[in-house]
Amino acid sequence: MDSAVVSPEYEDNPAGNSGFINAEFNLPADGTYYAVVETTDLDDQGLLSIDAENYDTAAAGNTGDTWTVEGNYSASGGEVVESGPDNGTSYGSGSVANAPRLDYEVNLEAGTYHVWIRGRQPSNSGNLVHIGMDSQVVSRSGFGSNDTLTWNEADSTITVATSGTRTLSLWMGEDGVIVDKIVLTKDINYTPTGQGPSESLQDGSGVFQQNTSSLEFSFLFEDNSSSVTSQALTLNEPYRNVVTPTATEHTYAFTLGSSTDLFFESLTPDASYEWTLTGPSGNLFTDQGFDLNDTLLSAAAGSYTLTVNAVTNSTGHYGFRLLDLFSISNHDGKCNDRDSESCR
Question: Which pLDDT does position 220 carry in this prediction?
Answer without folding.
Answer: 52
